[in-house]
Known about the structure:
Number of helices: 1
Radius of gyration: 24 Å
Number of strands: 38
Strand content: over 45%
Helix content: under 10%
Shape: globular
Distance between the termini: 35 Å
Mean pLDDT: 81
Largest sheet: 4 strands, antiparallel
Strand order of the largest sheet: 1-30-29-28
Amino acid sequence: MRIIHKLFKLNILLTFLVFPLYNYIYSQQGYWIPAGLEDNAISKISITNSGYIFAATLDSGLFLSKDAGSNWENLFAEPSRTTTLLIADKYFFAGCEWVGLYRSSDFGNTFDYLLQELQWITSIYLTSKNEILIGLHDARTYVGGMIYKSTDLGNTWIMSDTSLTNLYIEEFAENSKGKILAINGGGGLIIDAPPPNTWFFDGGIIESTDNGITWLRIGLDLIALYALAINKEDEIFVGTHDHGILKSTDDGKTWKEVNDGISTAQVITVTDLIIDSGNNIYAATYNGIYLSTDNGNTWKSWNPDPSVKSIYCLAIDSLGYIYAGTNKGIYKIVGSSTSVLTGREKFTSFELHQNYPNPFNSTTAVKINIPEKDFVEVDVYNSIGEKVSTLVSKFLEKGAYELIWNSGNEPSGVYFYRLNAGDFSQSRKMILLK
């Protein structure tokens, strides 16, 4: 037995010298991993299909990460308050307070300066017809909000419905029939401007059935709306300042509060709503994140790190990982209430992926693909082949699983982990730095 054990150690070490090297860990709960910019308040996150992350901040301009948040480049520090982002075709857009709209075709190396005379961009959206809508304020005239439209990816712009005023457009969204909705974050807010001007924002929701040319108010007047999402069944969800989350199943004609599990006394503002490919809904609030897996009927707190409270925005990358913009930087959230990533069913083989982050301090996360139900075991070994942890050892259904390893009292160094399932076996490497 001693000889077999030594041979197994040697096999581990040789395997990791031959194959690409990765790492992984299992948990039934989500886990928050800091992804940088901890000295910044994050107003918006936008992620390309290739995994580039753009982050807008309220005090330090615009940032870009090309390695899932391990390193960040400041694309510009001024203007400091960047409020909204959009990736459209070959272009990237960044809207700012008081200074207009920036556009780049080279991942932020250079920018075109658009709409500089229309100074405050509050939202930007790409329609299904590849046209861009923006919500903005004109600081020259103190008009309380307008919508502009571009049919050529920002080269030219026209004002969309001159009859609408008193708007503070927070977000746009489009249903499967091409109807576009926009929410107004005012809620009766009056902002003093240089005399004799004032800005009045009256809240509510508006709709367009002609791709943003004309708009009609459809309700929720004088309610400040800050988040908007539409699911696959064209049901509408809005996040509010003081009513929690509202839902409409009839195109916005009627609404009901859907706050079962949410303490509205604590949730002062619902700042963002996103829906993943499995129709799970995530709500960002000043009291953390809430998750609904039953179409908004019930909610539960989804805060693995209770110290992270003020969530300003959410984004999902092409692998299904969720990023949260907070008042203290960006967090990558791995794992879920079920530990299975939805919408990833087309697997033909077992696969072990690179851990994140790597190198890591104390905690790291990994992902495995399981093409069919099988008994799955993932173990972690130190550099001399001793098993230090078993991450999962059970039958798993077909799916993509996110796993978490907390290294506990293990010392810094190189570690290896192995996935065994049926006849499949694969090993990877990870580096712990404390």
